[in-house]
Amino acid sequence: MQPQRLKKAITDNPKKLGNLIDLVNLPSTLRDFLGQSQISRLGCFMRVWSYIKTNNLQDPKNKNVVNCDEKLKSILLGKQRVELVDLPSLIKLHFTKAPKSN
Hints:
Blueprint: H1 4-12, H2 14-21, E1 24-25, H3 28-34, E2 38-39, H4 41-54, E3 65-67, H5 70-73, E4 81-83, H6 87-92
Antiparallel strand pairs: 1-2, 3-4
């Protein structure tokens, strides 16, 4: 059973949800980080978040900040520290927009 908010999001704008869950070919930096050649944007974000949690990369004093190790820096534009709110937009930069079909 899906939460009511998720149901509403799917029915109101299915194309937007499709952009999150469609499989795409990954650029080499993400391919090296994730170890696979295709993944959805949502799946990619979840894998990056799992990596952050597994390797204890959240700042212990401020859980809203991620202290990047070398591997994580490779996909987050070389940044040493990243705010959690900026994480999705930094990951999204790796996903090119598909050309619009008429």
